[in-house]
Design goal:
With 241 residues, the protein is α/β, with parallel strands linked by helices. It is built from 10 helices and 9 strands. Bound molecules: ligand BV8 and zinc ion (ZN).
Length: 241
């Protein structure tokens, strides 16, 4: 258990901590990850569904997938991993949380100013007039949902494959990593770009990189310390909750 004591020491001495989270931090809340066993990729190839082409071809099918995920998430609770990060941010004002997740569990655990790289599954955006609104109904009354202003079909407010990340969020994430002297990489396979490029970026800025994951990932080679285990157990120990 030497490594976790070393990691706690490094975090206590760090001035600018950044956390990058992926689907793994929500796994203990009962939300399937994308690529792990039991992951979403098994049942649906998300690359085939989380794309503008799939939506154009069959908005009903894509919406059935998102409506099913929204229902799963609505029934889920944030876990001690989400709570430990929210608690840490209350006592460390310089801390920044960057997430690839669209489930909103960080905010439900109390995290604020979360940098959301891939959007928000609770956000809907009109495909015609661009109007944007949050709809927390799960399941949605009608699929596909329609815009109240112009009646066109709405899309989920998430970033699909082949779509650029929201400028402001991507810039904020890079600025946070540029300033960081310690980056926690939590529950991500580091397979999706450009989000995953934040990890080598942290390394090149000589930040200490600590990975929290149940398995080896593409991020592990960049990690100074690897804490192998579930984030719901490790983060409360690591962040002093
Ligand atoms: C872009 C939102 C250009 C939607 C997501 C070929 C063709 C087309 C594109 C590409 C291509 N090759 C590369 C690309 C780029 C592509 C990409 O990276 N593809 C990958 C698959 C190779 N990227 C893009 O398309 C991006 N856009 O490049 O646009 C551009 C630029 C400018 C202007 C216009 C265009 C957009 C990427 C965003 C896609 N959207 N999600 C939705 O959710 O429906 S991605 C999706 O993957 C989720 O957001 C998810 O967060 C993300 C990453 O996955 P992870 O979070 O890492 O989850 P995963 O399941 O993979 O891993 C879970 C981990 O947790 C595992 O390591 C597991 O061990 C661990 N774990 C499990 N349990 C626990 C745990 N850890 C700790 N505790 C536990 N208990
Ligand atoms: Zn509209």
């Amino acid at each position: 258990m030497e490594t976790i004591r070393e990691a706690i020491e490094l975090i206590q001495r760090a001035r600018h901590v950044v956390a990058l989270t992926g689907a793994g931090i929500s796994a203990e809340s009962g939300i399937p990850t994308f690529r792990g066993d039991g992951g979403l990729w098994r049942m649906f190839r998300a690359e085939d569904l989380a794309t503008p082409e799939a939506f154009a071809r069959d908005p009903q099918l894509v919406w059935e997938w998102y409506d099913w995920r929204r229902l799963l998430i609505a029934k889920a609770q944030p876990n001690p991993g989400h709570a430990a990060l929210a608690e840490f941010s209350r006592t460390h004002p310089a801390f920044r949380l960057v997430t690839q997740n669209v489930d909103g569990l960080h905010e439900r655990a109390g995290s604020e100013n979360v940098i959301k790289l891939h959007g928000d599954i609770w956000l809907l955006r009109c495909t015609r007039c661009g109007d944007e609104w949050r709809d927390l109904m799960a399941p949605l009354e009608i699929l596909p949902p329609r815009c109240v202003l112009c009646c066109a079909i709405a899309r989920p407010g998430v970033v699909w494959f082949g779509e650029g990340l929201p400028e402001a969020q991507w810039t904020a994430a890079q600025q946070a990593v540029n300033k960081a002297d310690l980056v926690l990489v939590i529950g991500t396979s580091a397979a999706v770009y450009p989000a995953a490029s934040l990890i080598p970026m942290a390394r090149s800025r000589r930040a200490t990189v600590i990975e929290v994951n149940v398995a080896e990932t593409a991020a592990s080679t960049y990690a100074d310390i690897v804490l192998r285990g579930p984030s719901g157990e490790i983060l409360p120990q690591l962040l002093g909750r």
